[in-house]
Specification:
2 helices; alpha+beta; four-stranded mixed beta sheet
């Protein structure tokens, strides 16, 4: 199948989901995290953090709801 694609439209729509240790976060965020040891950060391709959530699945859902294509960072 040969379907023309306009890849320019996809630039800037990729985000990265990675785990973040709560211990490495600022005091206020650590307090809000409660008993959680890890959170999940969503970053754009330039590394800017867009969101911080408690659940990996939620990070992917959140990204897709905002028309981003999420990928996991190991």
């Amino acid at each position: 199948m040969q379907t023309p694609q306009n890849f320019d439209e996809e630039i800037g729509r990729l985000v990265y989901v990675k785990t973040v240790d709560v211990a490495d976060l600022p005091d206020q965020v650590r307090e809000e995290a409660g008993e959680l040891e890890q959170l999940y950060a969503v970053h754009d391709e330039k590394g800017q953090q867009l969101a911080l959530v408690a659940d990996r699945n939620m990070a992917f859902v959140l990204a897709r709801e905002h028309d981003y294509s999420p990928v996991a960072v190991h």
